[in-house]
Design a protein that fits this description.
Blueprint lengths: L1 H41 L3 H23 L12 H23 L14
Helix pairs in contact: 2-3
Amino acid sequence: MVLKSEAAQIDQINRARGEAQALLMVAEATAGSIRQVAAAISEPGGREAIELKVAEQYVDAFKNLAKTSTTVLLPSDAGNAGSMVAQALTVFDTVRNRRDSARGGTSIVPRSPPSTP
């Protein structure tokens, strides 16, 4: 009986170690992806790429909502993807500015000039 319980304990330990290693690998891959995106954003055209991606995700989100629900509540300007992108980028800029001021530095992402209506 002792050998059987020790074998079960070793099996549990090995499984836990394997799961821990898998989690670390996923975390490292995610961090690497985030670093690559951050580097791409700082390149010329990076901000425009963000704007396009956010607009695409906005349209896809509403498309998926319409597929899965019989009732969809939309913002008053839901058809104005440009307004939504501007709002999302304002949040992006606010988060970046807070992070930069906490670090005491400046952002690597160039700010776009304010848009005119």
